[in-house]
């Protein structure tokens, strides 16, 4: 798939050939790249609703998403450092979290207005660096028209001092539950994200 994960797929059973269709029962397992050890999940059988108004149907089970989540968690893909780097007076935009670009320009002054202890510690405004880390394997559950993702993690906030060293300001635990619904719009697969809690 990429540098972090590989997929192993094989037929679960012989193809079933019927008059109007062919049924291919594939089992796809996602592993951390180069690490084909046992996974903490068991694949459960599932069926696709009987429909016949389209040429092709694809179905993905929770098992596929669970092994994907495990592979990327094991490879450290959910550990992200977000920082602002200053070179020759120019700010660099970082690409993070699955190639999503974001402009990051937060200082201790901004955190100091929210958390008084930070303002007491850092009178001079310094750039801030965030370290985000998943502390457990993200749990993906399939629903009727969407799927939910539960993520447990921590965020550590650092002040970046003039000599390029960092000083930890605070650490907080984060638990998020989101729903993602997929729809086809204008011949494109689109996703909508909703933060449940």
TrEMBL record:
<dbReference type="InterPro" id="IPR017943">
    <property type="entry name" value="Bactericidal_perm-incr_a/b_dom"/>
</dbReference>
<keyword id="KW-0325">Glycoprotein</keyword>
<feature type="domain" description="Lipid-binding serum glycoprotein C-terminal">
    <location>
        <begin position="50"/>
        <end position="197"/>
    </location>
</feature>
<dbReference type="GO" id="GO:0050829">
    <property type="term" value="P:defense response to Gram-negative bacterium"/>
</dbReference>
<keyword id="KW-0964">Secreted</keyword>
<dbReference type="InterPro" id="IPR032942">
    <property type="entry name" value="BPI/LBP/Plunc"/>
</dbReference>
<dbReference type="GO" id="GO:0045087">
    <property type="term" value="P:innate immune response"/>
</dbReference>
<comment type="function">
    <text>The cytotoxic action of BPI is limited to many species of Gram-negative bacteria; this specificity may be explained by a strong affinity of the very basic N-terminal half for the negatively charged lipopolysaccharides that are unique to the Gram-negative bacterial outer envelope.</text>
</comment>
<dbReference type="InterPro" id="IPR001124">
    <property type="entry name" value="Lipid-bd_serum_glycop_C"/>
</dbReference>
<dbReference type="GO" id="GO:0008289">
    <property type="term" value="F:lipid binding"/>
</dbReference>
<keyword id="KW-0929">Antimicrobial</keyword>
<keyword id="KW-0044">Antibiotic</keyword>
<keyword id="KW-1015">Disulfide bond</keyword>
<keyword id="KW-0732">Signal</keyword>
<protein>
    <recommendedName>
        <fullName>Bactericidal permeability-increasing protein</fullName>
    </recommendedName>
</protein>
<keyword id="KW-0399">Innate immunity</keyword>
<keyword id="KW-0391">Immunity</keyword>
<dbReference type="GO" id="GO:0005615">
    <property type="term" value="C:extracellular space"/>
</dbReference>
<dbReference type="Pfam" id="PF02886">
    <property type="entry name" value="LBP_BPI_CETP_C"/>
</dbReference>
<comment type="subunit">
    <text>Monomer. Homodimer; disulfide-linked.</text>
</comment>
């Amino acid at each position: 798939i990429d540098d972090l994960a590989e997929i192993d797929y094989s037929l679960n059973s012989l193809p079933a050939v019927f008059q109007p269709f062919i049924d291919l029962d594939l089992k796809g397992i996602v592993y951390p790249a180069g690490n084909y050890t046992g996974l903490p999940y068991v694949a459960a059988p599932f069926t696709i609703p009987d429909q016949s108004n389209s040429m092709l149907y694809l179905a993905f089970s929770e098992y596929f998403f669970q092994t994907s989540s495990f592979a990327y968690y094991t490879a450290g893909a959910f550990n992200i450092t977000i920082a602002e780097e200053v070179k020759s007076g120019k700010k660099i935009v970082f690409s993070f979290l699955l190639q999503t670009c974001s402009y990051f320009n937060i200082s201790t002054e901004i955190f100091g207005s929210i958390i008084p202890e930070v303002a007491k510690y850092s009178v001079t405004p310094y750039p801030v660096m965030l370290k985000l880390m998943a502390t457990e394997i993200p749990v993906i559950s399939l629903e009727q028209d969407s799927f939910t993702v539960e993520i447990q993690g921590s965020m550590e906030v650092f002040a970046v001092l003039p000599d390029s060293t960092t000083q930890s300001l605070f650490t907080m635990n984060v638990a998020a539950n989101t729903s993602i619904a997929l729809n086809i719009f204008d011949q494109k697969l689109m996703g909508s994200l909703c933060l449940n809690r």
